[in-house]
Amino acid sequence: MTTTSASSQQPNANERKDTQIIAAKRSIWKDTLRSLFRSKAAFGSAIFLLLLFIVALTAQWIAPHDPQAMDITNRMLWPVWSDAASNPAYLLGTDSLGRDILSRLIHASQMTLTVAVSAVIASGLVGIFMGLISGFFGSWMDSVIMRLADLQLAFPSLLIGLIVMSLIGSGVVELVFVIALTQWAYYARIVRSEVIKVRETEYVQASKALGAGNARLIFKHVLPNALASMLVVASFTLAIAIYYEASLSFFGLGIPPAIPTWGNMIAAARDVMLRNWWFALFPGLAITFTVLAFNLLGDWVRDHFDVKAE
Fold first, then answer.
1. 114 and 215 assigned to the same domain
2. Which of 73, 161, 165, 218 has a CA that sits 20 to 30 A from residue 176's CA?
3. Tell me, what CATH number does 239's domain have?
4. Strand segments (E) across the chain
5. Are residues 129 and 3 in the same domain?
6. Same domain, 97 and 238
7. Number of structural domains found in the chain
8. What distance in Å separates the CA atoms of residue 119 and residue 114, rounded to the nearest whole number?
9. What share of the chain is helix, strand, coil (3-state, %, to 5)?
10. Distance separating alpha carbons of residues 285 and 99, to the nearest angstrom
11. pTM exceeds 0.90, yes or no
């Protein structure tokens, strides 16, 4: 009789524990969303970035024209609201080759965001791996990796990008490689500091005594504790990647000119932007608002999760 009663109570205890875990997770999500809604700047940035990613994913269907189609008879048309003689089919006007600026702007968002997201993934993977090695094994490996990180951070990132891109040539893969090369050190330093803090705690020492391996310690204790800090770095890296793409493409060292990006659109307009201001205005505004949105969202993540700079 006693055995039956104990066995019947055990599932109830497990169910209560699972319910408490689920409730705690829901509470975290609710608190995060409530904090996001309270911050007008962060909420507006999140909505803007969500719409931007939707535009980038659906560029082939929502763009009114082929971004590469040239129409010499409609070249250098002004935006429709600034000139009564403009063609209503080209809302933001056309460039010197008669290409629709709105369509190029939409398709450019696709490539620009692809480069930015790829650069964040690449730099994050490299930085996390280097930070884990540095923090876990210490000794001379820690010294070598951290000195490499200090050396990379000592030089202006854009200068490194200009030098490397001039040596290896322009291209999407090359640009992602350069951004990862200049941004991995931030992730490495954060992950290393979290590893050093976590590996000395009592519960980690107890886990080691019970036979827990490094992989379990990394994925259960280290990376979850560093997640908020890595999200902050990722948001700023996205903004930096967009800035890098525009800067390097402006100098002819980024994405090939045949591919529409915001940086290439500004580069193509540099000789005529005083007369035809709309050539560079719209891609410039796209870069400005996108970088600002990522920075504002990163500030909110840092404040909400109380991330301390290492």
1. yes
2. 218
3. 1.10.3720.10
4. none
5. no
6. yes
7. 2
8. 8
9. 75, 0, 25
10. 19
11. no
In a domain? residue 309: no
Number of H helices, E strands in the chain: 12, 0
Task: Please work out, in degrees rounded to the nearest 5, the angle formed at the alpha carbon of residue 36 by the alpha carbons of 30 and 42.
Answer: 165
Q: Answer yes or no: do 12 and 126 share one domain.
A: no
Boundaries of domain holding 5: 1-28
Query: pLDDT per position in the chain (310 positions), as tens?
Result: 445 544 444 556 555 555 544 544 556 667 777 888 888 888 999 999 999 999 999 999 999 988 888 888 888 888 888 766 678 888 888 888 889 999 999 999 999 899 999 999 999 999 988 988 888 777 788 888 899 888 888 888 888 888 888 888 888 899 999 999 888 998 888 888 878 877 777 766 676 676 666 677 777 777 777 777 888 888 888 988 998 888 888 888 888 888 889 988 988 888 787 788 888 899 999 999 999 999 998 888 888 776 555 5
Q: Are residues 6 and 72 in the same domain?
A: no
| Residue 310 included in any domain | no
Three-class SS of the chain: CHHHHHHHHHHHHHHHHHHHHHHHHHHHHHHHHHHHHHCHHHHHHHHHHHHHHHHHHCHHHHCCCCCCCCCHHHCCCCCCCCCCCCCCCCCCCECCCCCEHHHHHHHHHHHHHHHHHHHHHHHHHHHHHHHHHHHHHCHHHHHHHHHHHHHHHHCCHHHHHHHHHHHHCCCHHHHHHHHHHHHHHHHHHHHHHHHHHHHCCHHHHHHHHCCCCHHHHHHHHHHHHHHHHHHHHHHHHHHHHHHHHHHHHHCCCCCCCCCCCHHHHHHHHCCCCCCCCHHHHHHHHHHHHHHHHHHHHHHHHHHHCCCCCC
Q: For tokens 């409530």, what's the residue?
A: 34
How far does CA 76 lie from the centroid of its chain?
A: 34
Distance CA 189, CA 100 (A): 45
CB neighbourhood size of 186 (10 A): 25
User: Is there a single domain that holds both residue 4 and residue 91?
Assistant: no
